[in-house]
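Lab meeting prep.
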Amino acid sequence: MRSMPKRVLARNATRAALPRALTALLVAVACSPGAPPTEARADVGEFPTIPGVGATLPSERSSSVEEATGAGAVNVGVNEGNEPRDSEPSTPAHAGDPADGIASSGTVPGPSADDPPPPDPTSEADAPGTSEPTPGGSSTCTLAVTVTTAPHGGRYTPRNVGAIWVADATGAYLKSLDVWGDRRLSHVEAWNAATSAAGVPRDRVDAVTGATQPAHSTHRVAWDCTDHRGQLVPDGPYRVYFEMTEANAAGPNHFEAFEKGSTPVTREASAQNFADIVLSFQP
């Protein structure tokens, strides 16, 4: 058998030794200190990055935080929701502001020794029932009025509408005492004119009211010595007016004068269409 040249033998020997050398090198690298185990590559996909948190492992995160807490470093923690925790809430700018009238402790400061004392609710100036009454007025003042109407020959006799009211000595309206009628009240012309002139057309505040009367009758009403605003009127001369109509037109009207003063007065009178008039005043 023909022997192989030495050059070919050496080349074959080199090729055979190369795999062994590579294997030895891989073993040496795998066993060197600090080298990660080959299984770590398989673990990378098992710990995906959580949104808002870096890929640093917990052990590495704690050490990095400790290193960052040196001089001039800001220590910011991470809460369970992976959002940075806010720093300690600062005190509102208005807390403790003297303009708010509240101390920094949150309590309302008590009155100063120099502050004037609060007004006494039971003082004479504020005590109920001690105000000065209107001159000439009295809470017991009353005027009882009685009158009986009579027909005047209108189209709708004996049906009638009408009014009784109080006026001052010049005839200026003060208050209605009795008003009866519905749609035909516009024909009670004197009363309509008086209330309109006073700025309270067809005023019936505190008055006795009713529908059109089917027949003539006696009316009994009273006046409490106040005007239509509820103000007590002073002593002096006054008038009581009577008016009624049985037609779609103005009817008769009449007034009786009396004196409001400090003594009781009773006045009796009669007039056409208004009989048995009685005015009884009590101060």
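Slide two material, second protein:
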Amino acid sequence: MTRVTAPSRLHFGLLSLPVEGPDQWPGIDGARGLRVRQFGGVGLMIDQPGIVVRAAPADDWLATGPLGPRALAFAVQFVESLPEIERRAFRIIVERAADEHTGLGTGTQLGLAVARAIAVETGHPEWPATELAARVGRGERSAIGIHGFDRGGLIVEGGKLAGEAISPLVGRHAFPAEWAVLLFTPPGAVAWHGGRERSAFAQLSQWGAAADTGALCRIVLTGLLPALASCDLDAFGDALYEFNARAGDAFAQVQGDRYGSPGVAACVARLRAAGLRGAGQSSWGPTVFAVAQRDEVDRIIRLIPDLTAIQTQVSCGATVC
């Protein structure tokens, strides 16, 4: 039996939205410029709440535990992608899984964890997350969770060109050990996933809504990453908040505001008022994240006693045993 422990994923925002229009940026001297990449983005892999999955060969297909039916679907899809001689039934046990549709990338991490466990059992332990993702149908938009599954840390992915299956990894950075990540779930959550999510992207494309890609790239390259490299939490927090807010503004037409719900907006404002500069909404929410000095966490939590916080740390990627 193979056991895989996978991280959860925070998504800080997309760099570009798919819109109807030119497929190249304006170039220099009147020429056509770089090809337009869709999506891209920045995110962070965290240990908690995470996912733990076990897989073992069996006479018949079976999956138990939280999200068992979805884990089983991923398992069957992965096995069907294998050569016929390697195909067989498996028993899947989901020991732990973060809730779906909460901004933690649970679907991708579950699919990759199941695929990695079966890949090991069928003699393919070397297959990277990009291979596993292709076999279980992940990576339609964001690839942060795919690259982060193998590597952990803070992930920057560049976005997809037309015809590309998975956006390439363009940057990965470790997190200072003295920094902590806090997670909050404010009330009044609004579910954004599946058909509703696809409809939202389709509407944005039709309306010509566009992320401010130039500003977002500037914040990442000249703000977020340098602050992380120099362990400057204040500068990192300011850049993270601005990046997340600007990325959220691009979705205001479909979600009604910068954030997915008034509860999320109020939570972010309170965290900022308590001194947490790097606060925002992960993906569509409702999970709210904040980054703090580890030795300041207790003091900060005392300032917001009615907000339940989960303290986690940055993951180094999935592990197999």
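Talking points for slide two:
The first helix runs from residue 68 to 80.
The chain has two domains: 2-174, 179-312.
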